[in-house]
Design brief:
Layout lengths: L9 H14 L1 E6 L9 H10 L1 E12 L2 H6 L1 E2 L2 E2 L2 H4 L3 H5 L3 E6 L21 H9 L3 E3 L9 H14 L4 E2 L5 H4 L2 E6 L4 E8 L20 H14 L2 E7 L10 H13 L3 E5 L7 E5 L5 E5 L4 E4 L8 E13 L5 E18 L4 E7 L11 H13 L6 E2 L3
Parallel strand pairs: 1-8, 2-5, 2-14, 5-6, 6-7, 9-10, 10-11, 11-13, 16-18
Antiparallel strand pairs: 2-15, 3-4, 8-9, 12-13, 15-16, 16-17
Length: 388
């Protein structure tokens, strides 16, 4: 793993605890392992020159039975072989987030697939292993198997020290905004909301189980996050399934959130890729938006539903002449991915970077890859594509 939790001094820990109590903040820290082997002087020089990190996100992990059956081993489940081709790309960014669309309630309550999902806990283990640092859990399948699955999943996320956002085990848990602080002294808060839960009502008095999109709550959460972090990252489960362009309601909600001052919006739910763009907020701020990151790993086999990817941004923290912190988002990049499988046996699932495809894996792969690149960048010509 490229990241590990840091051991704080007693004084720093007391300060964090006091601040967390005051601001309802759950704070995490990550270590950039690309700095291993460098002297203290070299690290100090780097910090003086720039405070820069990379933030990345991948789309939906929608674990159908054919996917977890393919991961079955004699001792449980192993999803690492499905993800090993993309692991190097997920470990490079300072922070990587993923949309875990199915609860990992585990085998004890019975695994299940569409339309009511419950997945092996080993999905979480695999995400931890390949470099994911925080997962989004607010989606239309959060309540599929009820409170029990949510709490069992959260128990495992806690066991493996994986921060989660969007679904919670208690009211107190839901009131703690997740903040990740990096070695570069850049702090990021993470928020997550869904349009709904497939008609399944939240149990009375337990609204904390899943965050639903509510403009008033959004505004309140963003206001609180702004007090305790440099950057606000908001994940939305919204839009229309299988539509390759964002709907008018998606764009209107994004504009509202940009007007609140949110820095980054990662969208999920359509299960296909939608374009990325910069949206200007009411105060002249610029918000990066990926309307839909598609399926990263799923059992859906329609062509465009097998295409997803990883989006990446550089976040730089600077100081102006008044020594005030200024955040700049630059260098948007994308790694389109393709879910390869044996169609006849619905097995041998593997996530592959599209630029590494061959005609044996996908006929006319270059033509498809170019079309995806044009689709993603149509509103952002400067979007570059990761090919190394």
């Amino acid at each position: 793993m490229k990241k590990q939790f840091l051991i704080c001094t007693l004084i720093s820990l007391l300060a964090v605890i006091l601040l967390s109590c005051q601001n309802n903040e759950a704070e995490y820290q990550v270590d950039d392992h690309t700095k291993r082997g460098k002297s203290n002087l070299e690290l100090k020089d780097e910090l003086l020159k720039k405070q820069k990190i990379q933030l990345a996100a991948v789309g939906d992990l929608l674990i159908h039975d054919r996917v977890y059956n393919d991961a079955k081993t004699s001792g449980g489940y192993d999803f690492i072989p499905m993800l090993e081709n993309v692991e190097p790309y997920l470990t490079r960014p300072t922070i990587t987030t993923a949309n875990q669309e199915t609860m990992i309630g585990g085998t004890e309550i019975g695994l299940s697939s569409y339309p009511s999902f419950n997945s092996p806990v080993e999905v979480g283990d695999a995400l931890k292993e390949i470099g994911v640092d925080i997962v989004s859990l607010a989606n239309n399948h959060t309540l599929d198997r009820g409170e029990q699955a949510i709490k069992r999943a959260i128990s495992h996320w806690n066991k493996i020290n994986m921060p989660y956002v969007g679904a919670y085990q208690s009211q107190a848990d839901s009131e703690k905004i997740r903040v990740i602080k990096t070695e570069e002294d850049i702090s990021l808060s993470f928020l997550s909301y869904t349009y709904g839960t497939n008609g399944i009502p939240t149990p009375n008095g337990k609204e904390y189980l899943v965050n639903r999109i509510n403009r008033k709550k959004l505004a309140e959460d963003v206001q609180e996050a702004d007090k305790i972090s440099d950057v606000i990252v908001l994940q939305l489960h919204f839009g229309n399934e299988y539509e390759r362009m964002p709907s008018q309601s998606q764009k209107e909600l994004v504009q509202y959130i940009a007007d609140l001052g949110v820095d980054v919006i990662f969208g999920h739910h359509p299960h296909v890729l939608q374009p990325v763009e910069w949206v200007e907020g009411a105060n002249g701020n610029r918000t990066f938006v990926a309307y839909s990151l598609g399926n990263f790993l799923s059992g859906q086999d329609a062509f465009y539903r097998r295409i997803g990817g990883m989006v990446q941004l550089t976040i730089e923290k600077k100081q102006n002449e008044n020594e005030e912190a200024i955040i700049e988002l630059t260098e948007p990049k994308f790694l389109p991915t393709f879910v390869d499988l044996d169609i006849d046996s619905t097995s041998d699932y593997s996530v592959v970077p599209m630029y590494k495809l061959t005609d044996e894996l996908l006929r006319d792969h270059q033509q498809h890859y170019q079309e995806i690149k044009q689709h993603l960048s149509q509103w952002m010509p400067e979007l570059s594509f990761i090919e190394d």
